[in-house]
């Protein structure tokens, strides 16, 4: 179980995260929503261990900075928003296979099991047909799916996704959410699409100005009145076939 | 074309080049004669003519083998530097190893440092200069793993040691000293003997094995330092290890042959065109292309103004620069 206790973070004098305390239930999809600059990505960066958090975050009772990087990479994977120009010439399958790096024996090649897992993740994310293509020939949405496949190939207990639905069309957005559910692990996902959050996540966290404004079941807390306060625009809801929709 | 076939073709071409190139030089020996002498040597352990024995075995063979080794070494170091700085313009000298070595060498040639070591004075000066500049870069970069900082510190270091080199050259009293300093700065394999291979060969082979161990880690590095770190790679540690091993190799090669430019820059690019971005292949193909280019560069250096020699650094730049521009136009063409 992932637990955060009294996490604070500031850059110079500006407070980015203000006394965050959270528990993420195992094997559930938790979305983080909130306006731009409220600290969502910073929170994810702390959980991913990119930003140091001195004894504020623990995984199964162990402070995360005590876990060696390689071991941690087997437990937690992140899909970041930044991608480098230097990988343009790599094939899709090369990149997805890199997700197996933390599981690989040092100095050795990737095993056939690693290759099989990478293949399976490409199949699950719908990019199997692209596996022999160069990264530079892909569209934004295809690239995004490559990196999602890579993160899944890490076979982590916790998958962190920072706006994974960027560049994805409606079909792949829904397919991704289905895939995440099937993945069956703890997923923490930053979403801007509130309707998607309400429909597909087990648990939701609303952040505002570096604090947790609300946390709980999406259909309970994502009410038009509450969201209007957070995002400063009016919201409407609709219900169809047990699905909860949000409009603005 | 399959990678194995490409490897086979390059390997055969290199072997063939080694044999053919032995014939070229201030005294030309026809290839048929070279082949015949090799066959005799394989059967009897001696050559037909004593002159050929001196020219081929004592002068050209060590030199040719050194060209093969240092071509491979410089190419691998270039590849490693391009990857750890994530900059396709990086070459083996980007962190200032070469200017450190030059400063040390000219101090030995012109100021007479290390003269108690006799003939080893220039190599000692060059090696110490290279070691000093590398150590300074490592200390100044500190704990940062930013490739930009690495390159910029390297540039600063280069500028400083180059200025020092020029100052020492300017202070020279005899024209002969300037000429011999310039000859060293431009690189030459003319003084290579069997003895030089004893240090150059193991160091280069060691570097090759070392880089091979980290082939997948290098691939990962191209995702960016942050991302590689989150996958469990210790970026800083790898950077330090590579800088140390690569600089050691360059220091040894430069010490023997002076500054040979462009091989380390273009060979990795050529290899990328041949086999793509995976380092398991790039390490091998960069070495092969580096060896071939340097080998033929050296043949030209001893043939075009026969019996005079042209410093090989001038030739590698003459061939390398247009080739480099061609590669860049090809890769970044629309």
TrEMBL record, chain A:
Residues 2-234 form the ABC transporter domain. Keywords: ATP-binding, Nucleotide-binding, Translocase, Transport. It holds the Pfam family ABC_tran. SMART domains: AAA. The keyword Magnesium does not apply. Coiled coil: none annotated. Gene3D superfamilies: P-loop containing nucleotide triphosphate hydrolases (3.40.50.300). One of its GO terms (molecular function) is ATP hydrolysis activity. This is Iron complex transport system ATP-binding protein. It comes from Pectinatus cerevisiiphilus.
Automatic annotation (TrEMBL), chain B:
It comes from the Bacteria. SUPFAM superfamilies: ABC transporter involved in vitamin B12 uptake, BtuC (SSF81345). One of its GO terms (cellular component) is plasma membrane. CDD domains: TM_ABC_iron-siderophores_like. Its main location: membrane. It is found in: Cell membrane. GO terms for biological process: siderophore-iron import into cell. It is a multi-pass membrane protein. It holds the Pfam family FecCD. The keyword Metal-binding does not apply. One of its GO terms (molecular function) is transmembrane transporter activity. Keywords: Cell membrane, Membrane, Transmembrane, Transmembrane helix, Transport. The chain crosses the membrane at residues 7-27, 64-81, 93-114, 120-141, 150-172, 192-214, 240-266, 278-297, 309-328. Belongs to the binding-protein-dependent transport system permease family. FecCD subfamily. This is Iron complex transport system permease protein. The lineage of its organism: Bacteria, Bacillati, Bacillota, Negativicutes, Selenomonadales.
């Amino acid at each position: 179980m992932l637990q955060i206790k009294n996490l604070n973070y500031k850059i110079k004098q500006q407070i980015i995260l203000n006394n965050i305390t959270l528990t993420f239930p195992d094997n559930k999809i938790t979305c983080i929503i909130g306006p731009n600059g409220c600290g969502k990505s910073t929170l994810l960066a702390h959980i991913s261990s990119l930003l140091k958090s001195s004894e504020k975050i623990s995984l199964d009772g162990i402070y995360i900075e005590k876990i060696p990087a390689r071991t941690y990479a087997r437990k937690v994977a992140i899909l970041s928003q930044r991608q480098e120009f230097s990988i343009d010439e790599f094939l899709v399958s090369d990149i997805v296979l890199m997700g197996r790096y933390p599981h690989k024996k040092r100095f050795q090649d990737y095993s056939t099991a690693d290759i099989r897992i990478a293949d399976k993740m490409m199949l699950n994310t719908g990019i199997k047909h692209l596996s022999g293509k160069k990264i530079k020939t892909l569209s934004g949405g295809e690239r995004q799916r490559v990196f999602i496949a890579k993160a899944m190939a890490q076979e982590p207990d916790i998958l962190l996704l920072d706006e994974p639905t960027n560049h994805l069309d409606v079909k792949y957005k829904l397919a991704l959410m289905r895939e995440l559910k099937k993945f069956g692990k703890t997923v923490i996902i930053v979403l801007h699409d509130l309707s998607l959050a309400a429909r597909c996540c087990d648990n939701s966290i609303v952040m505002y100005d570096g604090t947790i404004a609300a946390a709980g079941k999406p259909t309970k807390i994502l009410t038009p009145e509450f969201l209007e306060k957070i995002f400063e625009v009016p919201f409407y809801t609709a219900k169809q076939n047990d699905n909860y929709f949000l409009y603005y | 074309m399959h990678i194995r076939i490409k490897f086979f073709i390059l390997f055969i071409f290199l072997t063939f080049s080694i044999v053919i190139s032995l014939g070229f030089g201030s005294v030309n020996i026809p290839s048929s004669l070279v082949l015949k002498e090799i066959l005799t040597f394989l059967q009897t352990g001696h050559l037909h003519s004593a002159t050929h024995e001196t020219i081929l075995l004592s002068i050209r063979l060590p030199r040719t083998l050194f060209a093969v080794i240092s071509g491979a070494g410089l190419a691998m170091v270039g590849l490693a530097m391009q990857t750890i700085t994530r900059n396709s313009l990086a070459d083996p000298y980007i962190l200032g190893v070469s200017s450190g070595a030059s400063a040390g060498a000219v101090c030995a040639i012109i100021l007479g440092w290390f003269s108690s070591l006799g003939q080893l004075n220039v190599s000692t000066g060059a090696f110490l200069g290279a070691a000093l500049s590398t150590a300074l870069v490592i200390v100044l970069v500190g704990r940062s793993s930013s490739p930009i900082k690495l390159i910029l510190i390297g540039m600063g270091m280069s500028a400083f040691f180059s200025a020092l080199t020029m100052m020492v050259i300017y202070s020279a009293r005899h024209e002969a000293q300037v000429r011999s300093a310039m000859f060293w700065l431009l690189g030459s394999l003319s003084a290579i003997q069997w003895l030089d291979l004893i240090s150059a060969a193991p160091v280069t082979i060691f570097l090759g094995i070392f880089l091979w161990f980290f082939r997948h880690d290098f691939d990962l590095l191209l995702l960016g330092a942050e991302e590689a770190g989150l996958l469990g790679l210790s970026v800083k540690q790898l950077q330090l290890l590579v800088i140390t091993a690569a600089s050691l190799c360059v220091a040894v090669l430069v010490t023997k042959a002076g500054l040979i430019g462009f091989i380390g820059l273009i060979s990795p690019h050529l290899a990328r065109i041949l086999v793509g971005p995976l380092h398991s292949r790039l390490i091998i193909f960069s070495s092969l292309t580096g060896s071939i280019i340097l080998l033929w560069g050296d043949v030209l250096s001893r043939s075009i103004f026969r019996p005079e020699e042209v410093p090989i650094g001038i030739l590698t730049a003459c061939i390398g620069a247009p080739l480099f521009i061609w590669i860049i136009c090809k890769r970044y063409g629309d």
